[in-house]
Every structure is written in structure tokens, then in C-alpha cells.
Write a structure and sequence with these properties.
Elements: H1 8-37, H2 45-89, H3 104-177, H4 182-209, H5 220-234, E1 238-243, H6 251-272, E2 276-284, E3 287-294, H7 308-320, E4 324-329, E5 335-342
Parallel strand pairs: 1-2
Antiparallel strand pairs: 2-3, 3-5, 4-5
Helix pairs in contact: 1-2, 2-3, 3-4, 4-6, 5-6, 6-7
């Protein structure tokens, strides 16, 4: 059926025609009953058919006109309501309706106006919250930058600065002993070389922390490969990397895993004195496995060490992803880190 004939206006016309038909049947029944029971002289068959025909014709025209007018007015008001809802759906919450009839339709219009006002207030609240969130993010970023700078400054003062001071003292002592005691001077020069290597490893670890903390849109596998290749070129360490290409991780998980690997490499450079580092990152079914090991000097995991800050950070990042962090190490036996993260 054509949609035009099922509209509200034509529903009114049909209802008026239905009322006309019922009235027609009722009148016909009454007239026929009078004719059969009382047989009045003025009530003839011709007059019955003439009255019924006149009524039917006039009532039909009046029903169509009345239904068209009444349905048209209600249709226009429903169209206004539909337009208002469309405006809300398109995000125009400032649009308002104004009806003066005082009926149920006016009450619905008033409720829609109130809904639009509430939606407009909610949009303003969301925008204000977004601005506040952006301000908080900026403040948090500034605070994080300041804390990281302070930490690096402490590390420079506690490690590199002291090592450079020791280098200065040893080199000056070696120069003074060079003519009188060559053996002692040679020993001091060897100490200078050893401390210089330690300072170099410390500086590389600090520079590793100054790298960008994000993957900059590249896949996790590509970011870790670049990190390991860069370290391979600058350090006398054999890095062995095995990483799956299609890990299918969320952006947050990739960022956390990248920072975990970055922190692990920093700890190895600063504390392990390792010559070989093995890294495996792979996904099996619904779990991500990360294994990082080195053949360095190791340490007692039950004692407080300089590396504990980095290990704590790695453990916290793993747990934030719902994973588990396990570390095994003994003195002169290397360090082994195993992380399992559900995907």
C-alpha cells in the first residue's frame, strides 16, 4: 500500500468514514423498523431511499473534509515534533518548539524542549571536562618531564659525575707516577680505562632513557628492532632478538611492552657487564610471552640494588596490563626475566 494512504491524515479520514458508515446502518435500521412495524403513510419506499441516498452523499463529503482538516492539523504538529527530534539527532540542541493548544501534544513539546536543554547542558559539561582533562594531561606531562629530569640528574651526579671525578684523580696520579713507578702508573691507567668503560655504559643507558617514549605510529616489532640495532652499533654486546611480526596488540599494550624492553636494556647496560643479551617476544593463543636474559654478573634479587627502580617499573607496567613478572638471577650467573601478558 502507498505510504501516503497510511499517514495520520488519511487515518482520520478513514475513522470519519467508519463513523459515517455506522451511522448509516443505524439510521437504515431505524427507518426500516418504523416502516415494518407502524407503516406510516408519510413513510414510503421512495422517501426511504431518497433520505438514505442524500444522507450518504452529504455525510461522505463532510466526513472526508472533516477528517482531512482534523488530521492535517495534527499531522503538521507531529511534523514539528519529528523535525525537533531530527535536530537533536544532528546535534542542534538549541532548537525549541512552541505550541499554544494546551493539550497532550503541547506537553510532549515542552518535555522535548526540556530534553534539549538538558542535552545542551551535558554537551557543555563534556566540553568542560575535555578541557580540564587536556589541562590535567599537560600538567601531568610537565610533572613527568620534571621528575624524569630530576632522576637523570641524580643518576648523573651519583654515577657519571663520581666516575669522572675518579678518572681525573687517577689520571693525575698516573702522570705523577709515570717516571718514578711505571708499574703503578700502568695499574692506574688500567683503572682509568675500566672506569671510563663504566661511565660510557652509564651514559648510554641514560641516553636510552632520553629516547622518545612512544613508538611514533610504527609497529612494536619495528620499534624494538630499531632500538636493538642502535644498541648493537654502539655497544660491544651481542644482541639476539626474536620477535613475531603480527602480534596484533592494542596501542596501549605496544607502548607498555616497548617501555619494558627499553627499561630492561637500560638495566643491562648499566649494571650487568654482559656480553650477550637474548630477547624473545612472541604470542601464543591469547598470551604474549616476553623473555629477556643476559650472561652478565647478575645479582641477588632479594637485596636492594640500583637496578631495583627499573625492575619495579617493569613489574608495574606488566601488572597494569594484567600480566605476571618473574625474574631469576644469581651473582655471576646472569639475569633472566619472563613476562606473560594476556591478550
Amino acid at each position: 500500500m502507498n505510504r501516503r494512504f497510511v499517514s495520520l491524515r488519511y487515518s482520520y479520514i478513514r475513522s470519519h468514514l467508519y463513523g459515517m458508515f455506522l451511522t448509516f446502518i443505524l439510521m437504515l435500521s431505524i427507518i426500516l423498523s418504523l416502516y415494518v412495524l407502524f407503516k406510516p403513510t408519510w413513510l414510503t419506499v421512495e422517501s426511504i431511499f431518497l433520505s438514505i441516498a442524500l444522507y450518504f452523499g452529504i455525510a461522505f463529503i463532510v466526513s472526508i473534509y472533516a477528517g482531512f482538516k482534523a488530521g492535517g492539523n495534527l499531522k503538521y504538529r507531529f511534523d514539528y515534533l519529528s523535525t525537533q527530534i531530527t535536530q537533536f539527532a544532528n546535534g542542534n540542541y538549541q532548537s525549541r518548539l512552541f505550541f499554544n493548544e494546551g493539550d497532550e501534544m503541547t506537553r510532549v513539546a515542552s518535555e522535548l524542549n526540556e530534553l534539549g536543554e538538558n542535552l545542551q547542558n551535558q554537551v557543555k559539561s563534556l566540553q568542560r571536562m575535555a578541557d580540564e582533562k587536556a589541562d590535567m594531561a599537560k600538567a601531568s606531562y610537565k610533572t613527568a618531564v620534571i621528575e624524569e629530569r630530576q632522576r637523570i640528574a641524580r643518576d648523573l651526579h651519583d654515577a657519571v659525575s663520581q666516575q669522572l671525578f675518579a678518572l681525573t684523580m687517577l689520571s693525575e696520579a698516573a702522570v705523577k707516577q709515570f717516571d718514578h713507578s711505571p708499574e703503578l702508573a700502568k695499574s692506574q691507567v688500567l683503572d682509568v680505562s675500566k672506569i671510563a668503560l663504566q661511565s660510557q655504559a652509564e651514559m648510554r643507558a641514560l641516553l636510552l632513557h632520553l629516547r622518545p617514549v612512544h613508538l611514533s605510529g610504527e609497529p612494536l616489532a619495528e620499534g624494538i628492532k630499531k632500538l636493538v640495532n642502535e644498541l648493537q652499533q654502539k655497544c660491544r654486546i651481542d644482541f639476539q632478538l626474536s620477535i613475531s611480526e603480527n602480534l596484533d596488540l592494542t596501542e596501549t599494550m605496544e607502548e607498555h611492552v616497548f617501555r619494558i624492553v627499553q627499561e630492561a636494556m637500560s638495566n643491562i647496560l648499566r649494571h650487568s657487564n654482559a656480553t650477550k643479551v637474548i630477547t624473545h617476544i612472541l604470542r601464543k593463543s591469547n598470551e604474549l610471552f616476553i623473555h629477556i636474559s643476559d650472561n652478565g654478573s647478575g645479582f641477588d634479587v632479594h637485596q636492594e640494588k640500583k637496578a631495583s627502580y627499573g625492575l619495579k617499573t617493569m613489574k608495574e607496567r606488566s601488572e597494569e596490563l594484567g600480566g605476571t613478572f618473574a625474574i631469576r638471577s644469581n651473582e655471576a650467573a646472569g639475569t633472566y626475566i619472563d613476562i606473560r601478558i594476556p591478550c
